[in-house]
Amino acid sequence: MSVQQNLEIRRSSASVWGSLSGMRSVPTVSKYIDTTTCIGCKACEAACIEWNDLRRVATEQTGTYQTLPTLHAEYWNLIRFNERDFDGGIVWLMRKDQCMHCDEPGCLAACPAPGAIVQYANGIVDVNPDQCIGCRYCETGCPFDVPRFHQTTGKMAKCTLCVDRVSVGLEPACIKACPTGCLQFGTKDDMVALGARRVDQLKGTGFANAVLYDPKGVHGTGVVTVLAHGDHPEWYDLPRDPHVPLLVKFWKSVLRPLGGIAIFGAVIGAFAHYTKFGPKEVRGADARDRNLPDA
Amino acid sequence: MSAARPHRPFDTAVVAARDREDVIVGNEIVRHRLASRLIHWSVALTFFVSVFTGMPIWTPVFGWMASLFGGLTVCRLLHPWAGVAFFLASSVMFLHWVADMRLEPRDREWLGPKAFAYMRYETDDSDVGKYNGGQKLFFWAAGLGAVGLLLSGLLMWFPRAFPRLLLEFSYLIHDVTFILFAVAIVFHIYLGTAAEPGTFGSMVRGTVTREWARLHHARWYREVISGEEDRRR
Hints:
Mean pLDDT of chain A: 92
Order of helices and strands of chain B: HEEHHHHHHEHH
Order of helices and strands of chain A: EEHEEHEEHEEHHEHEEHH
Largest sheet of chain B: 3 strands, antiparallel
Number of domains of chain A: 2
Number of helices of chain A: 8
Structural class of chain B: mainly alpha
CATH architecture of the largest domain in chain A: 2-Layer Sandwich
Helix content of chain B: 55-70%
CATH superfamily of chain B: Transmembrane di-heme cytochromes, Chain C
Oligomer: heterodimer
CATH class of the largest domain in chain A: Alpha Beta
Strand order of the largest sheet of chain B: 1-2-3
Strand content of chain B: under 5%
Largest sheet of chain A: 4 strands, mixed
Low-confidence stretches of chain B: none
Mean pLDDT of chain B: 92
Structural class of chain A: alpha+beta
Largest interface: A-B, 42 and 45 residues
Radius of gyration of chain B: 21 Å
Distance between the termini of chain B: 42 Å
CATH topology of chain B: Fumarate Reductase Cytochrome B subunit
Number of helices of chain B: 9
Helix content of chain A: 25-40%
CATH architecture of chain B: Up-down Bundle
Distance between the termini of chain A: 75 Å
Number of strands of chain A: 11
Number of strands of chain B: 3
CATH class of chain B: Mainly Alpha
Low-confidence stretches of chain A: none
């Protein structure tokens, strides 16, 4: 988050309003990922590390070509490799995993620090380390298990959709590095149209269940993914129906105001009680007249 | 020049209240000895550090509290440790008072209209022992609350060590417990200060007047009197 002043803010964590002035119309942007033409070269992983100046993380052998078991605070872009039984053989699936930049971000909903997570006018969801307090609530809010707590900085870290590049008219580093064109970047409308064409093509070549993964539970994502086996999103380590956890919503929008009212109400109630009943004590002649020890 | 006079404590009741409880000194009765008071205030201190570091994280409406400690990040760092300290202090308090707080069948009435009647000063308090039913229930609720806050807080502190659904519920438990606790504490403080004059003195000086004891805890008062008379015989 280095050039956020170029972009207006649509939503901000723990805040009622964003800063949208409505003077300029900014299209929502999106990444496009075609898992069917990904060759697993990991150029996007390297580009992400380079552009974002991430420190090198020791790789882990998981029995596949995958660099690490999951995302990491210093590894925001990970190709997930999966093998599944299909049609008498196996399919080898590769999917680029990173922040999905949800239209309704669960991390932002859960975040208690004002301005620590923002959604820009163009839909990019970003973390502001200056405001992040490292409480890790976003990890509970995210339906894609993306945010990672950085043990050294004590802050949350994740893909920024290269907001610093996008805001000056460049495409994200991962997109720039892709050699097959399976990664594209543009407006959400264009990327959805591109995905729809590719899905039609796949259906025509025998992949009847192909879909463009753009889950409605979070009102769509800023990363749309073409899946040949759309009936099995879990084959790609994707949730079938992601949404902001109901308990997080309940906690934030029901319990929090109710609790505030209850606490203020208790204080007001105590004052009202004192006004009506006053202190409970024995005063004056009443007290003196009592024969205390025997009473 | 006169010879040096022997040292005389200026206030015999305060001296007695250091290590003795339920005894009469002059016109006063020692209600809480020094150990009881220190335990109570250690719980209160850790509670309020937890509250004032937790509430600004809970909602920005209370964000101003964060400046008491130097910002939201400091609150984030302090809160879990303050919570652990609160739990430890609460545990000591629980063990210290549990014998006095055994619930009797009739204490259950305090869960119902009796609590409201008490607040209207309409109850017959002639058979109230050292602690009334409301105080006992508050004691048990606070103990239960401390456990609930600790367990749910641990999950929120180490989110990756626990299953997802459990983690989501822990936010709910932490919040509900806190809200109930906060409402109860408002009334605890109100009853202990403005509503019942003399009560606050029992927690700072350690003593209460005979009038106070007779009004609020008549049976306890009779027991203390008879105990004293036994001792004099």
